[in-house]
Amino acid sequence: MQSSSGAMADNPNIAIHGHQMDVGEALRSHVTERLIEVSTKYLGAQDMTARFSRTGQGGFACLVRVHSGRDLFFEGSGEAAEAPAAFKQALERVAKQLRRRKRALREDKPINPLKQSLL
Known about the structure:
Number of domains: 1
Radius of gyration: 15 Å
Distance between the termini: 32 Å
Number of strands: 4
Number of helices: 3
CATH architecture: 2-Layer Sandwich
CATH superfamily: Ribosome hibernation promotion factor-like
CATH topology: Double Stranded RNA Binding Domain
Structural class: alpha+beta
Shape: elongated
CATH class: Alpha Beta
Order of helices and strands: EHEEEHH
């Protein structure tokens, strides 16, 4: 299933999938809210995907992928006993990557032609 938040620059396309499992409405709304928060805080995003699956140990795995434009993809994964905890781990990893990228663009460098176009 797919949940889109519009095609505007402020609202990225968000897709939430379950691999051989059903993603409930409460988890879907929680994931959408958190992905929008991260998108507005760091660099913005065009497309964001969260994929949930079951692990062999009875827990959940989550893969979060963010397309931030200009061939910039950030990806993080997490595993936990509960799906929201797995999503939190994956989102923290992606947020760290986005935070580091934003900091690198903000630093004063002699020549950084992409700086203005990405901020």
